[in-house]
Amino acid sequence: MKLSFVPVYITLHVVGLVNALWPIPRNLETGTSLLKLSSSFDIQFEAGSSLSPPQDLLDAISRTKHRLWSDKLGRLVVGRGEDDREGLESAASLSLLTLALDSHSQSTTTTNDDGSSTSHSLLPISVEAVKDIGTRSEEYSLKVPADGSPAVIKANSSLGLLRGLTTFEQLWYWLPARDAGNADEGDARGAVYAYQAPVVIERDYPAFPYRGFMLDTARNFFPVEDIKRVLDTMSLVKMSVFHWHVVDSQSFPLTIPGFEELAQKGAYSSKEIYSSSDVQSIVEYAAERGIDVLMEIDIPGHTAVIANAYPEHIACPGATPWSQYANEPPAGQLRLASSATTNFTVSMLSSIAQTLPSTMFGTGGDEINTKCYQKDPNTQEDLKRFGATLEKALDSFTQSTHGALRQLGKKVVVWQEMALDHRVSLANDTIVTVWVSSKHAVKVAKKGFRVVHAPSDYFYLDCGGGGWIGNSAGMNSWCDPFKSWQKAYTFDPLARLSSAEASLVLGGQQLLWAEQASPENLDPIVWPRAAVSAEIFWTGSRHPSGQFRTVAEALHRLHDVRFRMVQRGVRAIPLQPQWCALRPGQCDSGGLPSMVWGFVLQKLAKVIEWYKFIVSLLTTKYSEHIGFNEP
User: Fold this and answer.
1) Count of alpha carbons within 13 Å of 221, Cβ hemisphere only?
2) Catalytic positions, please?
């Protein structure tokens, strides 16, 4: 039995050594030749092209040229590439990378009546990145010959060219000069080289358009520079959406035009506020790196802090004990039955939404506490006056707020409770984020809504950090255990979905709720774990070899991108001792190779999961289970 598995182990082991790209392209051919980067290396547009490149693409090119030399990442092998030194002396050198529009692109040149042609500018990355989530073109092709002839990236958009540049950057490693003191200027920088030329990638494109990361900046504040570092790292692994959970009951750090008092009285301090210029800086920085900023203002729950500036709009503000009136302290929710509060909310959301280029805007809708409204005299009086139930009032509130956003051209993004727990009318194009359990995605899809996977049982990065409630020493976090990268990597976006339902899946995201996170530990909590969903939703279920995704194959590549993150100033945590990272497979458990065991256990876990699911359908009536915390 052991012998029958040995060939599988060898195949996977070799695949891990052939390339270190993350996310791995959907198709990939590589060789074994060394290829140096010339000291005069340049990136140019195709000769004879009348294309007028946008400034943000030119900036992306400059960043790539800089990183090729500044990453200084040694190969993750024993000796960190020293064994390559002799071969590099005779290796070919690459002097040029050419960027071109492929034949499938929408023409950037039109023919006039007189037969002449008119050149048009390629749309900026920042425009392509914020198009409707289902219409973005990220496809690219890449060829890097082994003989030193020009490499080529072809795409049909500036965003596709950016994705190709990102892949190109990950091909290169660094070997320091043997004697920098006696080397000429070019040699003194050491050698930048690839070790698997030629490289051929034909039509790499994402399996899902939504590849996101969510950051909560309300529980604890994160300065602009920290957010931008997150965005740079997201771009490294081709993530496409930054879900910004910007405010919550604890603080309101967001400046909204016309509603400045919310931040003035709701932020932790005057230094912990995102000004309008800060917001635009973050949005523009993200878009130039191929990332759409999805801002969320969670309503009607999670809004206690609004009482600091507008107490007339908040029910049960600061009610105690808070655990009876809210999922987290402090208690307080928008008075959704009040027409004045509805109008206030519509104006507030519209004021900020119209300043954002994204076609998406989040309104939350999770964890609405009914007792808060039951104990609020104003809400009860409004319900009685209009002869409405709480659910009818919520529906009216939702129609008004969502309607205003739709008039601004926004698709509304909500948490799953709005689709599964409440009797509200949602537009067909509403995007529903599934967070309580991965098993709930099928229920959302059956209702015909588009799905974003954000399940707490796979993707919550804050789980396993211990409880944070003050008088619960020794308690675990509500979503224990810790969600390791291995656990997240086994997630199947299409599990239990029919082909029709699968078409509704936009993608997914990993999330950081910041009760126990701050700038000091942001990077170690997020990276490299958050890169896992980047590959799940770019590459899909199968790798270029045709094999299904496995943790064992992914490990060496995730090591590689983590080391590259560190070279770029990201404090990403190690996955193993460096001794293991330099020796793939040698830290596996004894007996049957652990990568085979990983594959077997993944399959066994899916069988058990299916068995439990079928038994639950046959023996019990399905009931929802809501967590104690988040979003």
Assistant:
1) 17
2) 367
